[in-house]
Amino acid sequence: MTQSKRLVACPTCKNLVEYSLQNAFRPFCSKRCQMIDLGAWANEDYAIPAVAKDDNLPDELTQ
To answer: What is the distance of C-alpha 34 from the center of its chain?
Structure first.
């Protein structure tokens, strides 16, 4: 059985790169792009949205 190469766009530079175990930086194309992305997280450029908690409600009602 022949397996086709799965190509994905690098999240940082958008170049196509093979997504495989041989690519140590997957889904990135290089260590540089991987570190740029890590720096963006460390700089808080990315954030996971959170819902503000209403302090007037008991804890069991805020979930």
So the answer is: 10
pLDDT band at 49 (very low <50, low <70, confident <90, very high): confident
pLDDT reported for residue 54: 66
Give CATH for domain 7-46: 3.30.50.10
Token digits of residue 2: 């022949």
> For residue 17, what is the enclosing H or E element?
strand 16-18
Residue 33 parent element (H or E) = helix 31-42
pTM over 0.90: no
Q: Structural domain boundaries of the chain? A: 7-46
Q: What is the four-CA torsion angle of 41, 42, 44, 49, rounded to 10 degrees?
A: 50
CA atoms within 13 A on the CB side of 50: 6
